[in-house]
Amino acid sequence: MKNFLQALTLVSAILLVVSVLLQSQGSGLGAGFGGDSNFYRSKRGIEKFLFFGTIVLAVIFFGSLLAGLIIQK
Fold first, then answer.
1. Distance of alpha carbon 64 from the chain centroid
2. I need a labelling partner for 37 at 20 to 30 A (CA). Which of 17, 24, 30, 69 fits?
3. Alpha carbon 65 to its chain's center
4. What pLDDT, on the 0 to 100 scale, is given for residue 27?
């Protein structure tokens, strides 16, 4: 169980870093590939999936860390 939590923490940490780096600060995913977005708009498509996926990965990451601390004691 301890090895599974360590692997889950490692994998979720790597995926969390990748998902955060894919998001451009304040400009959305389209601006990273040459698009320009100087106005506010809602997230659609892959941006929305990436946004919610990042939240899910963060919850999994912190949950696995807390579970590892509880098991360790």
1. 14
2. 17
3. 15
4. 55
- Cβ(29)–Cβ(36) below 8 Å: no
Question: Domain segments of the chain: what residues?
Answer: 2-72
8 A C-beta contact, residue 24 and residue 31:
yes
| Residue-level length of the chain | 73
The pLDDT tens digits of the residues spanning 22-71 come to 987 655 555 555 555 556 667 788 889 999 999 999 999 999 999 999 99
**Those residues with Cβ within 8 angstroms of residue 54's Cβ, 6 or more apart along the chain or in another chain:** 16, 19, 20, 23
d(CA 17, CA 36): 24
Specify whether the backbone of 28 is left (phi greater than 0), alpha (psi in -120 to 50) or beta.
left
Nearest to 29 by CA among 9, 10, 53, 13: 53
